[in-house]
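Deliverable D2.4 — example input (structure tokens):
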């Protein structure tokens, strides 16, 4: 038997394509940033002198062109990262598609996840530690917070209570993209905005240690 290739229309393949597109956009942003750096400028460096004349020490045309392109690319990056998030919902939790109303299919209440029916959602992970000045610390995550929702992931997204692989995969494709994290803390439910990123000064893109949490 031959090797079965993934359908080009499958959510997983679409996610791969979007991630490749995101990487290409980020690479071009970096290239345009190098143009600015080569001209000793950034997105806000004045291009005229104190008397209002164009600065002779700068390549004004190259800087303006690079700035304009960076603005376009940032908008493109925002759009593609949002689309990645939507596709990943289908990759990690195919049941999401069943929750979308249509004219021909009705969804019975009994088929919905328990947290949609009104039951109190259950945490699936616990924050075991948070590094100072990390993305996790900046978002407001605390040690011993119980994670109820991480982006689109909930307890029902995990086939095994002992593995947080899907969470790690989501983080890996969400660099510089805001993820809403819902946590229980001392009988309070909090929604925090977490932006995974590299280069913050420590390991990983979160700067926290998250472990599985099982109430059973």
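Example output (designed residues):
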């Amino acid at each position: 038997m031959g090797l079965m290739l993934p359908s080009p229309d499958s959510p997983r393949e679409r996610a791969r394509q979007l991630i490749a597109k995101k990487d290409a956009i980020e690479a071009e942003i970096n290239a345009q940033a190098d143009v600015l750096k080569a001209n000793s400028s950034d997105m806000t460096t004045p291009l005229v002198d104190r008397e209002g004349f164009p600065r002779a020490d700068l390549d004004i045309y190259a800087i303006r062109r690079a700035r304009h392109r960076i603005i376009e690319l940032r908008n493109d990056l925002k759009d593609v990262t949002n689309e990645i998030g939507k596709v990943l919902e289908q990759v990690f939790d195919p049941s999401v598609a069943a929750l979308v109303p249509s004219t021909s299919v009705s969804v019975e209440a009994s088929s919905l996840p328990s947290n949609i029916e009104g039951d109190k959602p259950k945490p699936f992970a616990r924050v075991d530690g948070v590094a100072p000045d990390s993305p996790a610390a900046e978002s407001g995550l605390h040690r011993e917070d119980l994670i109820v929702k991480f982006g689109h992931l909930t307890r029902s997204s995990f086939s095994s209570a002992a593995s947080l692989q899907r969470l790690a995969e989501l983080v890996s494709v969400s660099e510089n993209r805001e993820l809403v994290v819902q946590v229980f803390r001392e009988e309070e439910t909090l929604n925090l905005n977490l932006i995974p990123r590299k280069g913050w000064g420590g390991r990983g893109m979160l700067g926290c240690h998250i472990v599985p949490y099982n109430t059973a």
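The radius of gyration is 22 Å.
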